[in-house]
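seq:
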Amino acid sequence: MRIVFMGTPEFAVPSLKALIRDHEVAGVFCQPDKPVGRHQNKLQPPAVKACTLDYNAAGCNIPVYQPEKLRDGTALAILKELAPELIVVAAYGRILPDDILALPPKGCINVHSSLLPKYRGSAPINWAIINGEQETGVTIMHMASELDAGDIILQESTSIHPTETADMLYNRLAELGGRMILEAVAQIEAGIAQRVPQDHEKATLAPMLSKAMSPVDWSRSAQEIFNQLRGLYPWPGASTDIITGEPMKLWGAQVVEKHTDAVPGTIVAAGKAGIDIACGDCHILRVLELQPPGKKRMTAVAYLAGHPIQV
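struct:
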């Protein structure tokens, strides 16, 4: 099929590669390059653009478009020129207006990293971990005007490993989406793709992450705090100020189901095993890796070697 692909981050790359391998990708849309570096004076292309340029260097000729807006008519004019049969979207980061949704004769479909209707929005992988879900997956759906509310074509679930962080799960779901998109496109091409309406009453939201989510509330259970660390990894990360009085990133930890009567937030042990902190359920979160302000990441043991803690 003749397809236009819309996606931006690494999550979208496996889907793009699969489509380039098996179909005619007439064009790729992604977000504009972003400034990076200490002085924000260098532009870094998004992963989807970098991937497409690699294919072009190997002999493909896939144009890349990075419109600032989708509602001023420019993107629509480009799409009319490209004349795709189908538009495939994966983590593009922009909401498609109705005139674009209505353009391709086979419609627009989306690769979404949750089991819809659960976790509609921009951070479904993170929120699934933060909320302690044991299962998630990928949904391929027909796109609709309302965010992540379209009819479902395919779904495939996968277990969330007990210690899995958001970036690890992100990579697994990206690969899963890359495998599923080919099946969905084949069904659309054959005219047999199903349309299963979502139960909108069961919808939950997965809003954007922010640094305001980082501070740890030690009155919560050890497992809930551990889920917070995993779900906010690598950004914005979980933090606490109880160790030094200044916010310190917590990168690695484990739940210790050892009873303690200490007030939540109390450091009850600090040694070769790590830094043990009392939580609201009378269990312990053992900090294994941390990052003091202005310093590099280090193990808790390495930190304690230069900064003994009074228990």
